[in-house]
Amino acid sequence: MTPPRAIWRFADWTLQLDTSGSGPIFESQCTTCNDSSEASDGKEVPELWCLRHAGATGHTGFRAVATSFFRAKLLERDGAD
Question: Where are the domains of the chain?
C-alpha cells in the first residue's frame, strides 16, 4: 500500500509588538555577583537598585535588561489557491 502524499502549504508570518498586555519589563543585573533587581514596568526601580547596590558593595558594572513581547501573525494572502 502506498503511503498518503503530504501536502505542503507555505505561509508568511510577521512579528508585531504585543500591545495587549503591559509594556516592556525592565531589570538590572550586577555583572560582578549576578545579583539582580526586581522586574519593573519602569526603568526607575532597576536604576535605583544599581545605585544602592553599588553603594553597598562597591560593584560598578551592571547589565540592563528590557524584555518586550511579540505576537506572530499569519499574513493574509491575495487570492486562494
Answer: 23-71
